[in-house]
Amino acid sequence: MRLRITGIFILITIFVSQVSAQSFIALSSGISADLNNERPFFGIPITLRWQPFKHSAFFIEAIQDIGFNRLSKSDAYTANPDLSEHVVLTEEVKHTSFLIGVGGAIVLYTNKRNNQITVDLSTGICSESYTVDFRNYDKVNYEVLNPDVTKPISGLYASIAMIYNFHKRKQDMFIMLRLQSPSSGGFGRYKLSFNNTAPLQLTFGYKLFTSKK
Which domain holds residue 22? Predict the structure, then answer.
């Protein structure tokens, strides 16, 4: 994982100096679906990007992913002869994440109206939280064997994004399809029923240019 991220850093360094660009601030949001679990996590990503330099495609990104509850079934047991030996509980797992990183853009195509297709590469630090809860769990009389636990993790990530920019004077609309690697952070001694997420995000947003070409 670290070798991959190092490679992306090298690519970013190469392409940032070769792409002519404007400085801008961009905000987008949409839907996120996890590709690293059979029962995927879904969320709403809110992405802020800042490209501070007028003649460089270097950017800084921050993404807050607000997750929906993922529901599944868990088994709980009791040794009390007066109660049912086995009950099925509904398990709720909510995933949220915040990341901050740096990246660079590669322009693939520009038409006569100055609409552009770009590929963005980025890497940085990701902080995630998996919050686990069991509905109607009688903790006094029942026990879930090897339960999932609430667990925060942090690590490095790498991402690639395909962006189509609709150019309109001082402001651009854009659609972004972004794939992010699982975080390099782990769950330690805990063996959980899910893996680190690898979100595929589809977002729509606006760029506000802060300087002219």
Answer: 2-68+100-127+155-209
